[in-house]
Amino acid sequence: MKKRILRIIILLLLVGAVFYFNGGFEKLLKSPTVQAFGDLIVDFHTVGPIFNLTNMKPGDSETKPIDVTNNGSVSRIIAARGTRTGGIGLDPKIETVLNVTIKDGSTALYGPKSMTDFFSDSLSQDGILLNTINAGDHKTYNFLVEFPTSANNLYQAKSVTADLSFGTITGNNVVFNEVYYIDTKKKTRFKYQWIELYNPTRQDIRLKNWTITDNSRTTVIRSDKKIKAGGFALLSDDGTVWKLWNEPKNSLKIKVVKKFGNGLDVDGDHVVLKNSSGIEVDRMSWGNDISGFTPPAVNPKAALGHSTERQTPGFDTDAASDWVDRNPPTPGN
Fold first, then answer.
1. Nearest CA-CA partner of 177 in 156, 154, 195
2. Which end of the chain has a smaller Cβ tally under 10 Å, C or N?
3. Could you give the CA distance from residue 76 to residue 55 in angstroms, rounded to a whole number?
4. Average pLDDT over residues 126-154
5. Distance between the two ends of the chain, CA-based, in angstroms?
6. Residue from 151, 200, 180, 171 nearest 263 by CA
């Protein structure tokens, strides 16, 4: 009996392996309504133009739910773009009177604004900012188009078609992502301080001769190591600190020659990151030091044993609101 069960299991494994290596799962999961935009998996629930608006009457509306999944390993700021792909009718075109609203649940993220403005706003560098989706999570965005009841007969027999695309907003250089400066061990608190950098770009970046400056002095990164695209680097002046944390095993760890400044000031300090050419690429601060943001603002002092962390890796508006108190700290994530 056991041998028979074993044969059946082996047979199933073999069949499964053949199915897998012939692209079975990929074909099974593939849908004509689903598209990938980098780490994002987007289900439009329709094939062809997302909106094909014709013969609309005053008071009519149409809603399209779009499911977006963050298939990456870090949180992402989501952005959308709308593109006019066709339509019928002379000026004034129907999109000048149609209103567009984008919602996440009951929360309006955009609009109501005219569809003409929607197309125009989509042309900006980052498209239309929606909100954040954490790694592995998904959200349903509802795109609502309304024909106002106040519209007149100028728009009869006119139409417009439109498509949507999605992407993520990232920075263009390495940034500070998390700072741990207030350890529970007061006597040796400088020893256990660490800084996490994040590379939101699409290329690996060499960190040799980059510098970190606080309110007292400058620390130089002497190690000739690269931070990978979409990766993290953990910096400390004592390698034993990582025995206290559960960071990913493959994390890039860089030991700096001296502690940051004269030790990061718990009550208030700032850090400035410069590349090997001496060009400033990022800065931030906390506590009673407000110099790390534009305009100057307070990033509250972290609680004992907590860190201060960027809300979304790589998303930098130079504002204190980019940062949160993180408990527990998450080095390398």
1. 195
2. N
3. 38
4. 92
5. 48
6. 180
Burial of 267 (0-12, 13-18, 19+ CB in 10 A): exposed
User: What separation in angstroms does the CA of 164 have from each of 12, 39, 105?
Assistant: 42, 17, 19
Residue among 266, 146, 275 nearest 209 (CA): 275
- How many angstroms separate the CA atoms of 173 and 77, rounded? 16
The predicted-structure confidence for 62-71, as pLDDT tens digits, reads as follows 999 999 999 9
CA distances from 215 to 212, 238, 268 (A): 10, 21, 9
pLDDT digits (tens, 9 = 90+) for 262-303: 889 999 999 999 999 999 999 999 999 999 999 999 999 999
Q: Any alpha helices (H) in 22-107, and if so which ranges?
A: 24-29
- Structural domains in the chain, CATH included, are 34-169 (2.60.40), 175-326 (2.60.40.1260)
The three-point CA angle 237-243-247 to 5° equals 90
Exposure letters 38-58 (e unless 16+ CB within 10 A, then b): ebbbbbbeeeebbbebeebee
